[in-house]
Amino acid sequence: MVQLLGELLEYVLAIDALTATLVIDLRHPVLTNLMTSVTGLGSVAAGLVFVGLFYLAEWRKEFLVTLIALSITGVVVAVLMTAVQRPFPTQPVCLTDGAGTPTTSFPSGHAAAVTAYAMVARNSDALPFRSVAVLAAVVAVSRIYLGTHYLSDTVAGIAIGIASVLLAERVLARTDLDAVFRKLSR
User: Fold this and answer.
1) Strand, helix or coil for residue 147
2) How many Å from the N-terminal Cα to the C-terminal Cα in the chain?
3) How far, in Å, CA of 133 to CA of 85, rounded?
4) Is the separation of the CB atoms in 15 and 151 below 8 Å?
């Protein structure tokens, strides 16, 4: 079993290296500007803005699910980054050093966050799912394109985003949302 896991890890790392090399070869200044502009939508600052907007719009379910899911992703991503300590790919376009948070490659917190937004939008009457999902996909790809994450880092981030929303929805299914929102509004 250990040998099988070792071989699987070698296979994933080989795909990561191949993808990173391919992306470097495909970079173009116009596309780099686009990806650099879009990637910030997965940041912590953007998450705070989205949660605040959902609250102000009184989108109760979207607000609570997003708040809980982003909290879960934040903890899981920080723990994994600290535990794994995977270096960034070579030749990154940009890095976010000095933010006071772990700055390693695995997993992608941006991909986790934008996946959470898309998952919240899928059950929302207020949010356009297709638009949010396309934007989430572009942000996830931007992390690979900009060289801040490997493909497997981004896939892991997407899985974390999905799991965090499913967990948040499960918790909230057992909760009186109106009562929670009344307490938050005081």
Assistant:
1) coil
2) 54
3) 29
4) yes
Q: Give the CATH number of domain 2-185; options: 1.20.1630, 1.20.144, 1.10.10, 1.10.3470.
A: 1.20.144
What's the whole-model pTM score?
Answer: 0.87
* Relative orientation angle of helices 129-145 and 109-122, to the nearest 10 degrees: 170
Q: 100 pLDDT exceeds 70?
A: no
The residue with tokens 């394109």 is 145
Domain boundaries, the chain: 2-185
Amino acid code (one letter) for 47: G
pLDDT at residue number 96: 52
SS3 content of the chain, % helix, strand, coil (to 5): 75, 0, 25
Give residue-wise pLDDT tens across range 53-93: 998 888 888 999 999 999 999 999 999 999 999 988 887 77
